[in-house]
Amino acid sequence: MKNMGFLNMLKSLDAYPKINEDFYKRTLSGGIITAISAVVILLLFFSETRLYLKTATETNLVVDTSRGERLLVYFDVTFPEVPCTLLSVDTQDISGEQHYDIRHDITKKRLHVHGHVIEATRDGIGAPKIDRPLQKHGGRLEHDEKYCGTCYGAEVTEDQCCNNCEELQEAYKKKGWALPNLDLIDQCARESFVERVKAQQGEGCNVGGFLDVSKVAGNVHFMPGKGYHHSNVQLQELSEFNLDNFNITHTINKLSFGQKIPGVVNPLDGAMWTQTGSSGTYQYFIKVVPTIYTNVAGHEIKSNQFSVTEHFKDGNIKQKTQAGVVIYYDFSPIKVIFKEENRSFLHYLTNLCAIVGGVFTVAGIVDSFIYHGQKAIKKKKIDLGKYT
After folding, report:
1. What pTM did the predictor assign?
2. Which residues contact 187 (CB under 8 A, 6 or more apart)?
3. Using one digit for the tens of pLDDT, what is the confidence trace for 306-323?
């Protein structure tokens, strides 16, 4: 008896009382609404499931408190009108750190006028350091001074000069000495430089690799002819090449400050600029934003995003500037943190229940409105028929 009383009490709590099927009345409008509701529920179910399976990215902003870090700047730039021999890469920053004519961790590719690669090497890049000619007395050639090249101890007489690589080799042969590495001999290095410039006339250059810089404001220079101009030497053999007016048309195939972040496209990737007038300096001003990206598996990538503005400084306006491309970069004090997360399964179930319950509730309201509306219209027609 106690069990029956308990069961009867549970029965009285039933929030879903059943109606005998004899009292059900099915309508055409109800069937149509039910079919539409089922389709809507199915579509919303697939949409919610797709969102559940897709990872969500949470974004936070914090103050960047890191200190003393280093940064790798990856780049790939093409200069279709500047030969590799005359191109140098330099870096400097506000802390005073400077690197000129960087050669390590960089690959250069000589490009034909039609764009295909002639030669690719990893032995460095840039204009050789062509200094003023080395004099016999050990100093460098001064302005208006007569040139008398050193024979590096192979002179037969005190007034003998070795002004070119061939004369130096003859002096060594007369002494019976073995020839040294000609790349380290002043005269031979200068003649080799001239030969390379002549051989690469009309070619372009693609430079790529990475630079290890301090995480402070600084700049990267791509300067054609810098090694030649800084030597303060006027080589007669190069006068025909017009080395004072370079075409710095260029394409930045890739530029990133740190590793690539999945889903992020850097604004200068594929950027191209074409020189249409006189030579000058093309400047990029970059604001670098430190970024930490963590994927679903917990793998963390410390990298950077950046924004950029551009400006061309005409070399013929005001003070004449050397032709080239300069990238000025500075760091934001704000760090962005991206974190990928999977959606909660309980949240997914809650949304599914809300979809099913919400659609059926709305459908019931619509069906009730239609049913009672039709019923009222029929009743009104009957009432009107009685009076006619």
Report:
1. 0.65
2. 133, 149, 162, 163, 164, 165, 167, 168
3. 999 999 888 666 656 778
